[in-house]
Amino acid sequence: MKVLVTGATGFIGRHLVAALLSRKETIRILARNVEQAEAIWSPGLLEVVRGDFANALTLGDLCEGVDIVFHLASGSFAENDKTGEAEWLHQKVAVEGTKELLRRAARAGVKRFIFVSSVKAMGEGGSSHLDEASPELPQSAYGRGKLAAERAVLEAGRTYGMHVCNLRLPMVYGSDGKGNLPRMMAAIDRGWFPPLPEVKNRRSMVHVNDVVQALLLTAENPKASHQTYIVTDGCTYSSRQIYILLCQALGRSIPGWRFPAGLLQMAAKAGDLAGWVLKREVPLNSQVLYKLMGSAWYSCAKIQRELGYRPRYSLETALPEILKALCLVTSSQRSLALSPDRREEGKRS
């Protein structure tokens, strides 16, 4: 069986390709930077095709001979853009690029098409526990682009009789990931991160290996056809619980005081004003504070019920490998074991 993976050089893509290689699948990947791909995988392990969704002419016969497409490629553009450029770029890359890939997949007789989307396609819902039946109210250009691409995937499935499925992901963590969580860990390790207050917010996350599990399940199980699934690790975390887990894993003492939520809000509003005056991003503003202290809470019950998905990781169990990958374990080998009398772990939802 031949598998096409777009976005293969990204965080999730690398883990998916590793899983496919372990299953002895024949793999083709699309890459804008062929040299980067060749630096990751040894020659002969897979086929690398140079192409870019921003230019359909570069895609050629990308889908010829392919049985399954895993479409992970996604643009990353500034969300605070006031010119409309981010909206246009997401439309061009995420939506039109996905439609073009769907057309080529249909012409080539591809049997299954799995699209990696985001919970941003739904919005964040405040304190509500969102599932696939919740209203779709995306609040960013990225989320609107993902939702439009999801709809194109489902429409193509109906039009061409193709097995299609959308996967909505929250923040993904793992040993070689990037983004807010590793930055937070590094700041705590240096003593630069303020002790967060408990505001009872709820956040969902998922380990990259559980994402791979979900991708393979949706490609293999006929029940997944024409469906959209949310994938999480089954845990619910508050921002303070995340902060405590990271402190404990790093061997850092948890301060006896907490930064007042009201003071954080005042600092964020000051950051909004400073950003407006300086015409550039500042470390703390209302948008950053919402990402830090707001809720983004999702249910993975549907994919568990219908496909037998079972998350194998939580943030707590994954922290040792993450710290090792980030080189945050000191020479004194600070203990990664969480003390039972201090544990404030995420509860299973």
UniProtKB/TrEMBL annotation:
Keywords: Isomerase. GO terms for cellular component: cytoplasm. CDD domains: UDP_G4E_4_SDR_e. One of its GO terms (molecular function) is aldehyde dehydrogenase (NAD+) activity. Gene3D superfamilies: NAD(P)-binding Rossmann-like Domain (3.40.50.720). The keyword Transmembrane helix does not apply. It is an enzyme of class 5 (isomerase). Its EC number is 5.3.3.1. Residues 3-226 form the NAD-dependent epimerase/dehydratase domain. The keyword Aminoacyl-tRNA synthetase does not apply. InterPro entries: Epimerase_deHydtase, NAD(P)-bd_dom_sf, NAD(P)-dependent_oxidoreduct. This is NAD-dependent epimerase/dehydratase.
